[in-house]
């Protein structure tokens, strides 16, 4: 019995020693981690496969030569792209000047016809429309003239376009309109003013396609909208909307 106790005590002693050794090993590892990796740095991270770099296209060469066309009769010139200054955008062009110089006399003829309505028409709706034409186009003429003056231009700057102004009524037609009264006048007025307005809309469409001036663009857009609406009102007033 005594021998059995001795053997049991020996096994317990070995177990205690092994446990103590394990505890010491854990403490030693913790101390190493707390104090840092040898050399003062952290343990090296696991290596990973770094992504391969992409070959992206480079920027255009700003020193590449650029060919600039010369003026009529002059040779072209070349220079580096980073040395070339973009040409300033034109504030207005010939299409703008053409529109303005044609629209002034065009509006003036519309005023001549509109002033005849008060004494010759028997249609109250047409009188209202004529008053609107007078109220709108008189200020527009002043705006058009100011546009020319501000740019050192005048009515002759666009050349003689009298024969190309669409919708303009000949002197003979104006004489017949002036001599007419009542229903006859109303029919002639609506027919002539409708052609006149359509001509203005056509000219406005031309400058909207070719012009570059912002003010002219706004005026031309207004002509398209307002005179198109007046054409419909005149037909309705005369009972010929359909």
Concise account of the structure shown:
By secondary structure, the protein is mainly alpha-helical. The chain has helices at 2-35, 94-115, 117-120, 124-150, 171-179, 182-210, 214-238, and strands at 65-68, 77-80.
Please state the second-level CATH architecture of the largest domain: Up-down Bundle
Q: Mean pLDDT across all residues, rounded?
A: 79
Q: Segments where pLDDT lies below 50 for 5+ residues?
A: 1-6
N-to-C SSE string, H for helix and E for strand: HEEHHHHHH
Number of discrete domains: 2
Number of strands: 2
Task: Tell me the overall shape.
Answer: elongated
CATH class of the largest domain: Mainly Alpha
Distance between the termini: 132 Å
Number of helical regions: 7
Q: Please give the share of residues in helix.
A: 55-70%
Structural class assignment? mainly alpha
Return the CATH topology of the largest domain. Answer: Ferritin
Order of neighbouring strands in the sheet with most strands: 1-2
User: What fraction strand?
Assistant: under 5%
**Fourth-tier CATH superfamily name of the largest domain:** Ferritin, core subunit, four-helix bundle
User: Strand count, sense and closure of the main sheet?
Assistant: 2 strands, antiparallel
Radius of gyration: 46 Å
């Amino acid at each position: 019995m005594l021998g059995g106790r001795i053997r049991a005590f020996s096994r317990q002693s070995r177990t205690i020693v092994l446990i103590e050794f394990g505890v010491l090993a854990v403490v030693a590892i913790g101390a190493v981690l707390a104090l840092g990796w040898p050399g003062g740095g952290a343990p090296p991270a696991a290596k990973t496969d770094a992504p391969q770099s992409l070959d992206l296209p480079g920027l255009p060469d700003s020193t590449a030569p650029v060919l600039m066309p010369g003026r009529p009769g002059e040779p072209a010139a070349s220079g580096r792209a980073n040395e070339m200054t973009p040409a300033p955008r034109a504030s207005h062009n010939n299409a703008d000047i053409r529109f303005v110089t044609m629209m002034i006399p065009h509006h003036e003829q519309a005023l001549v016809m509109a002033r005849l309505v008060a004494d010759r028409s028997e249609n109250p709706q047409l009188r209202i429309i004529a008053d609107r034409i007078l109220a709108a186009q008189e200020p527009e003429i002043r705006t058009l003239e100011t546009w020319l003056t501000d740019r050192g231009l005048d009515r002759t700057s666009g050349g003689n376009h009298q024969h190309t102004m669409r919708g303009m009524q000949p002197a003979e037609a104006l004489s017949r309109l002036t001599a007419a009264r009542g229903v006859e006048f109303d029919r002639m007025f609506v027919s002539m003013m409708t052609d006149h307005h359509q001509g203005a809309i056509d000219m406005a469409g031309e400058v909207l396609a070719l012009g570059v001036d912002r003010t002219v663009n706004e005026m031309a857009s207004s002509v398209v909208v307002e005179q198109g609406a007046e054409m419909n009102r005149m037909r309705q007033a005369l009972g010929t909307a359909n």
